[in-house]
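I am writing to request your help with a piece of structural work I have in hand. Thank you for your consideration; the sequence and its tokens are set out here:
=====
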Amino acid sequence: MPPTIEAMATSGTLRHAASVVFAVTTVVPLLIFVWTLYSLDTLGRSEAHVGLGLALAIALLGYYIFRGLVAQMSNLIAGLGKALEATPVAPATAVPIAAAASAPPAPLPTAPADTSHAVPGLGAIQEVQDLNRAMAALWQSEAAAFKGQRVVISVVNSPRPITGTLVMLSHDGLLVQTDRQEHVAVGYNRISAIDAEK
């Protein structure tokens, strides 16, 4: 689902976030250095001028390189998102399983898109949301091949994978019926691998 106008208005871009991070990590320490030189009454010396000039030139060169890398990454993410929007995605459907008839699967929980991937101090970044949607579409298309089959799903930051029958695909994640007849919902942002059980 494409982002709404409201979501795009409240979220920043990766380029803006890179500028803020650069300012905090480079410009602020440079200003502290100038203040230190001023408080030591050495700001008028030619060595201080050369040092400040070199520090500023290196900071600006770093900003130019960093901004270029971020722009390339942002364009790549936007292109990936557009390519995935053009490809059809399998609809979210359930697979009938005899054991699951007694306990219908619960709908997968949905997290608000604007706050689920917010960067502390910067808020939501549009490219992060785009990349999250792109990865969800990729995992959904890969999981569609295993629908109704036994799978092993590796989950980020989990020591053990989830093993069971892939019961349902949705736009938010997968529903797996384990050997204990439990239904486990796994969001696409938590998946690191999906394989057929051997």
User: Anything to note?
Assistant: The beta strands are 118-119, 123-124, 150-155, 162-169, 173-177, 183-187, 191-196. The chain is about 45% helix and 15% strand. The longest helix spans residues 46-86. Confidence is low (pLDDT under 50) at residues 1-10, 92-115.
